[in-house]
Write a structure and sequence with these properties.
Layout (H helix, E strand, L loop, with lengths): L12 H7 L4 E3 L8 H15 L1 E5 L5 H24 L2 H7 L11 E8 L12 H29 L6 H7 L5 E9 L9 E6 L5 E6 L6 E5 L2 E4 L8 E5 L1 H6 L9 E4 L6 E9 L20 H11 L4 H11 L10
Parallel strand pairs: 1-2
Antiparallel strand pairs: 2-9, 3-4, 4-11, 5-10, 6-9, 6-11, 7-8, 7-10
Helix pairs in contact: 2-5, 3-5, 8-9
């Protein structure tokens, strides 16, 4: 194996641009001879990026278009006027100080364990019906992704993440529906301030024309382009980072305000249930809380053996070794 050589000249210009291309996972390539390569790409996307795009995800694209159309209509008919009449919008127009504010209008729909969609004011029957058709397909995609993540992490039970999220009533699923309206002074405000997502796996159906979403990668903000052909954008939340013992980190991201165009964002969160108890998967933990003399004793007889087996043995000595049957 060759020692990596870093050419600092390649950190500028076209070479760097190439290296910052967002990973794209083609689900059609999970079958057949390209599976190993695709799984490796997914692992790198989760480990090094914290976000990626999915093509051929299996979700009905006509339904995705319908959901976007109905949400845009809802915004025009029910949210746009009240947003621009709000004190926040008036303050920005006057260039007043509006710190700790986001230039967005949004509402949240709970789907699992209990739906609140019929309680949200002014949602049309068509939008409610479309969302009820759309969400089961998203849950199926989220659970497929979670199984692939488990496989890449080396967890024997491919349902580990789903089981860890489940609590008594199964994983929690909800959707934040947001519009980022045209902004008169985008230099003074964020569409949405910098943050990581609290939950698990986030599936984003976003605008196909207006940009604005950015993710931090290696100290640089990566601009996420609008999603053409309804490619699904995925990012990792804090709970997957914890369950993976830091292997799959959540990524800091933000939305920039724009002077031209209203950006659409429909983000569905596949999260732990409220009563789910979260901790790193035991098999992903290094051994801990052991005496160094015990390690040296084992090392003396296993020095020329695989260190992984040695670490596994040490887990049984320290308190990091309480293996969960789920793992």
């Amino acid at each position: 194996m060759e020692i990596p050589v870093i050419d600092f000249n390649e950190l500028e210009g076209e070479k760097r641009k190439e290296k910052m291309e967002i990973p794209v996972i083609d689900f059609n390539e999970l079958e057949g001879e390209k599976r190993k390569e695709t799984m490796s790409l997914l692992h790198q996307a989760c480990e090094k990026w914290g976000f990626f795009q999915v093509e051929n995800h299996g979700i009905d694209k006509k339904l995705m278009e319908k959901v976007k159309q109905l949400v845009n209509s809802h915004y025009e008919e029910n949210l746009k006027q009240s947003f621009y009449e709000s004190e926040m919008a008036k303050s920005l127009k006057n260039k007043d100080n509006i710190r700790d504010t986001d230039w967005e209008t949004s509402f949240f729909i709970w789907h699992r364990p209990k739906s609140n969609i019929n309680e949200i004011t002014d949602l049309s029957e068509d939008l409610c019906k479309a969302m009820d058709e759309y969400i089961p397909q998203l849950i199926e995609l989220a659970e497929k992704l979670s199984g692939l993540m488990c496989e890449n992490l080396g967890l024997k039970n491919l349902g580990y993440i789903k089981n860890a999220f489940s609590g008594e009533k199964g994983p929690s699923v909800g959707t934040k529906v947001a519009k980022y309206p045209e902004c008169p002074h985008p230099e003074l405000v964020r569409g949405l301030r910098e943050h990581t997502d609290a939950g698990g796996i986030i599936l984003l159906l976003q605008d196909d024309k207006v940009p604005g979403l950015e993710f931090l990668k290696d100290g640089e903000w990566v601009k996420i382009p609008p999603s053409k052909n309804n490619t699904m954008f995925v990012n990792i939340g804090d709970q997957v980072e914890i369950l993976s013992n830091g292997r799959y980190p959540s990524a800091l991201h933000r939305v920039m305000a724009h002077k031209n165009g209203n950006r659409l964002s429909i983000a569905t969160f596949y999260n732990p249930a409220g009563d789910a108890v979260i901790s790193p998967a035991p098999t992903l933990l290094y051994p801990s809380h052991y005496k160094f003399q015990d390690y040296l004793q084992l090392y003396a007889s296993t020095k020329f053996s695989d260190k992984v087996a040695r670490f596994d043995s040490m887990k049984k000595i320290g308190n990091g070794g309480h293996h969960n049957l789920l793992s």
